[in-house]
Amino acid sequence: MSRILLAVVVVAALVLMVRGLGAQIFFENTGEAVAAARHGARSIGWACLLLTLAAAYGWLVLGRSPWVAVGLMAPVVLCGGLTWLMPDSLWGVLAALVAVPAAGVAVLVVLLVPRR
Q1: How far apart are CA 4 and CA 107, in angstroms?
Q2: What is the per-residue pLDDT across 76-85, written as a single tens digit (0 to 9) for each?
Q3: What Å distances lie between residue 112 and 54, 106, 115, CA to CA?
Q4: DSSP secondary structure string, 8-45?
Q5: H/E segment holding residue 107
Q6: How far is it, in rounded angstroms, from Cα 40 to Cα 73?
Q7: What pLDDT was estimated at residue 88?
Q8: What is the spatial distance between Cα 16 and Cα 89, in angstroms, rounded to a whole number?
Q9: Does position 115 have pLDDT exceeding 80, yes or no?
Q10: pTM, whole model, 2 decimals?
């Protein structure tokens, strides 16, 4: 049951992350676009918090490999960190091409591979 809860939290966080990153992309610098980008940055922040908690829970409570925690922390470090450091850049969005699949693989490992 706890593995399924972890998977649900990670999937919800990844959905928040992708929606937030999608809101970061705008072509015209209008007030509405800037407000949507700020809302997207807050969504990315909440997603990073959820992924950090999921990585800690998976590693410390479930006793999974540290590599599962590394996979879950990849979007936090790459997408969240780049969005925090360079909020007007698309580097966070480009980093999602690598980081989000890494977190997805980590969730699949938690769900499919039995603990030793």
Answers
A1: 9
A2: 998 888 888 9
A3: 17, 10, 9
A4: HHHHHHHHHHHHHHHHT--SS--HHHHHHHHHHHHHHH
A5: helix 91-112
A6: 19
A7: 79
A8: 19
A9: no
A10: 0.83
